[in-house]
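Thread: Newbie trying to understand structure tokens

Hi all, I'm a second-year student working on a class project, and my supervisor (Dr. K.) asked me to get a predicted structure for one chain before our next meeting. I've only ever worked with sequences, so writing a 3D structure as a token string is new to me. If someone could post the tokens and maybe explain what I'm looking at, I'd be very grateful. Here's the chain:
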Amino acid sequence: MSKILKDRYSISADELEARMQAQQKYHDEPISKAVAVLSEARDMIMRELGIDTEKDVETIQQQQDLLGIILTEETREDMAGLNGWFVFLRRKGDIIPFCWIGAAQLNNAGEVTCEIHRFQDNRLKKITGPKLVGS
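---
Reply by user tm_fold:
Sure, no problem. This is what the structure looks like when written as tokens:
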């Protein structure tokens, strides 16, 4: 009678499914929610500047070029390595900083937030999304 030992690198189909569901719940869904909040913040600024954000990517880029809007993805080392977007406006040959759209962050309530710093009128707006896990 031979004894079959389970290989430590093998898992059952049920275990694989459970791991995939956990990955979806605790990793993929929170990232999707954070990206959605960040995208909404960007789209809000673009709509304010006259861009139709419901169009395809190529048309949006054409609108940005026509309106002189420059969107750059940056990492701010002077701000503890925060990622986000700078929005600049091209006016009469000058490039004017318009706003900074900060990276999505988690607040103490478990919700994802994104800050928009407007340079011209020195305002700060926070976009708050849903709780990342458990909602």
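A couple of things are worth pointing out once you decode it. The CA atoms of residues 58 and 64 lie 10 Å apart. Residues 13-48 form the longest helix (36 residues). Feel free to ask follow-ups in this thread.
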